[in-house]
Amino acid sequence: MTKPKETSDSLTHPVVEPAHIVVPERKRTAGDYVALALATCGVGLIPLAPGTWGSAVGVGVYLLLMRGAERGFDSAVARGLDLSPQTFPVVFNTVLLAAILVVSFVGTWAATRSERLLGKKDPGAVVVDEVAGQLVTFLFVPWALGVGPGAWTVFAGFVAFRVFDIWKPYPVRRLEGLGGGLGIIADDLLAGFYAAAAMSLLVTIRLIY
């Protein structure tokens, strides 16, 4: 027996994959519910464009990380640590990279478990991959004299990632073949790197001109 493979907001036709056994709710453990919560990020069960909602969560996480890093940086300076504003982008990108690694590793575990629980290959409800990919999109955005990206840059990054995530240029789609949570996460990370390259070029041109 087979079931169609699901992908969030995909423009392509479903790919037929072997069906998984759905774990009945009465047999689910606390760990199963934690995995589902992490994999869906609170928006995965929205029936319309769950991948887009997942990307929006990624943008929200990015903004929260930036705000938290700014407060931490300001606090360190207020306590007498000799830091120039130009060093903040390095600090923030380190925090962002750490967040991407955490979301990717935790998301791989949660997505793998959620596939079994939901009985679908790359279920559309799993959007933690979009969160990870959206964070990658902002990893290489240039900063001007310590000043971070503005609202237009954040919006452009959101749109850029959605384009590459749905388009899936080579070899993004091939990474889905890795299977399990690794395949779910890996293709969105690569789509995020495509979007990051586009954003780096776009912001650099804007800063120059």
List keywords for this structure.
209 residues; mainly alpha; two-stranded antiparallel sheet; 7 helices
Structural summary, described in words:
The protein is mainly alpha-helical and 209 residues long. The chain has one domain (28-36, 48-208). The chain is built from seven helices and two strands. It has helices at 30-40, 50-78, 88-118, 128-137, 151-167, 172-175, 180-208, and strands at residues 2-4, 16-18. It has a two-stranded antiparallel ribbon with strand order 1-2. Helix 2 runs antiparallel to helix 3, helix 2 (50-78) packs across helix 4 and helix 2 (50-78) runs antiparallel to helix 5 (151-167). The chain is globular.
Give the topology.
Elements (H helix, E strand, L loop, with lengths): L1 E3 L11 E3 L11 H11 L9 H29 L9 H31 L9 H10 L13 H17 L4 H4 L4 H29 L1
Antiparallel strand pairs: 1-2
H/E element order: EEHHHHHHH
Name the poorly predicted regions. Answer: 11-21
Number of structurally distinct domains: 1
How many DSSP H or I helices? 7
Q: Helical proportion?
A: 55-70%
Q: State the end-to-end distance.
A: 58 Å
Q: Biggest sheet, strands in spatial order?
A: 1-2
Shape: globular
Mean pLDDT: 86
Structural class: mainly alpha
Radius of gyration: 18 Å
Name the beta content range: under 5%
Count of strand segments: 2
Largest sheet: 2 strands, antiparallel
Compact description:
This protein is mostly helical.
